[in-house]
Amino acid sequence: MPNQTGSSFSSNIIPIIAGTIVALSLFWAFRPIITFTFTSPNTTTTFNTGVNTYNIFSGPTISGHEFNHTHDPPEPTFYDDPDLTYTINKPIKNWDEKRREWLWLHPSFISGIEKRVMLVTGSQTGPCQNPVGDHLLLRFFKNKVDYCRIHGYDIIYNNLLFHPKMFTYWAKIPSVRATMLAHPEAEWIMWADADAVFTDMDFKIPLQRYKNHNFVVHGWPDLIYKNKSWTGLNAGVFLIRNSQWAFDFMDVWSGMGPQTPNYEKWGEILRETCKDKTRPESDDQTGLVYLLLKEKEKWGDKIYIEDGYYLEGYWKNIVGKVERITEKYNGVMKSERGLRRRHAEKVRGYSALWEAYLEGEGWRRPFMTHFRGCQLCSGTHNGLYTRHSCLDAMEKVLNFADNQVLRSYGFVHTSLGDSESVMPLPFDYPA
C-alpha cells in the first residue's frame, strides 16, 4: 500500500511540475529582458554576448555537437521579418534578443555555442593577374580548410562584393555582417585575409580570454595610444562576437568607407589623426585605430588588443625562423615518445601535451603568418620586397604548415622549398 500511494503521488505531481517548468520557460524566453535564469532538472546553458549573459534551457535531448539541421519550427523568427536586410545600408536592431529567440526554437545549436567559430575569408571576383595567383589562393584556402577541419570550425569563402562600392579591404565588413545573420548559431566570426596562413595547426584560439570582449585584433597598445600609428594594429585578421554590439560597431566603422559621401573627408581625418599614414584614401585599419583613439570610451572596453601571440604575424619576421622551429619541435619529439605517437587526425588531445614544453620557450610556432604587402593575386607587391622573395617565402611557410597536417596522413614534404614532393614518414619518427 505505501508503494502504491507513493506511485500515485509521483504520477500526479510530475506532470504538474513539468507543466509549470514549460510554462515558465516560455514566459521567460519571450519576455523582453536582458538576462533570464531557468531552474530545471535538465540542462541550463549560459552564453555571454559580451554585453548580456543569457541562460537558455536546452532540455534533455541536447548532446555533444549533434545539430538537428532539418528542424525549423513554424514559429516566426527574425528571418520572417520583411524589413530585415542583409545589406550594410540598414541597421540591425535588438539582435541579441532575436538571436536568443532563434536559439530557443533551435535548441540543438545551444550546446557548445560559446566556443563556436565561423571563419570567413575571400578574394576578388575575377581571375588573378599574377600568373600563379589563383594557384596561391587555392593553397591559402586549403590551409584554412585544414585548420577549420582539425578544430571543428565552419568556413565561408566569399569572392563577391556584398556592396558594390565597398571594395578591397572594406569588402570584409559586409561579408562579416551577412555571415552573422546567416549563422546565429556561431558565437564568434573570424575574418582572415586571403593572404593569411595558419602556421600552428595545433593552436586553439583562447576564447575564454576574450569572455568580456567583443572584438579581438592583433596589435600593440603603445603604438596605438602613444604613437597614434596606423600600423599599431592589423585588421587583416580579427575575431568579432555575434552580437548587437558588433552590428553597431560595424555600422560606425563602415561609415568611413567608400560607399559614403564623406569618404574623401574621412581620408583627410585619418591622415590628420595618424601622421604616419601616407595614402590619401580612408582605409579600414586606420579607421579602427581612429575609433580606439577618439571613441575609446564607447568601444575600447570591448576591444581586446592581442599581443600575447601571433594572431597576425608579419611574414618577414617569421619566414627565416621556420626551419629552426621545425628542428626545435623535432628535438622535443625525439625525447618524448608520447608527442610523436601516431594518432587519428580527429584526436586532438596531443596538442595539449605540447603546452608543457612550449611555455616560456619563445620558439613556438606562430599562430598565423600574414603576407601583407605581397599582393599574391595582383602581383603588384610592395616596393620593399621582390616578387621572388614573396613567392619563396609563401612556398616555405605554406609547406611548413602543410607538414603539420600531412603528419597525420603519414607523409611530409621533402623540404620546405619543395611543394610538389612528399616522402613517407618512418614509424616512430623522429626517434
Automatic annotation (TrEMBL):
Keyword annotations = Glycoprotein, Glycosyltransferase, Golgi apparatus, Membrane, Signal-anchor, Transferase, Transmembrane, Transmembrane helix
InterPro entries per UniProt: Glyco_trans_34, Nucleotide-diphossugar_trans
Q: Where in the cell is it found?
A: Golgi apparatus membrane
Pfam families this protein is in? Glyco_transf_34
Instruction: Name the membrane topology term.
Output: Single-pass type II membrane protein
Gene Ontology CC: one annotated term:
Golgi membrane
Q: Name one GO molecular function term.
A: xyloglucan 6-xylosyltransferase activity
- For this protein, the Enzyme Commission number is 2.4.2.39
Please classify the protein's predominant subcellular localization into one broad category.
Golgi
Where would you find the membrane-spanning parts of this chain? Answer: 12-30
- Decide whether keyword Calcium is in the record: no
Q: Which family does it belong to?
A: Belongs to the glycosyltransferase 34 family.
**The protein's name:** Putative glycosyltransferase 34
Q: Which organism is it from?
A: Helianthus annuus
Which lineage?
Answer: Eukaryota, Viridiplantae, Streptophyta, Embryophyta, Tracheophyta
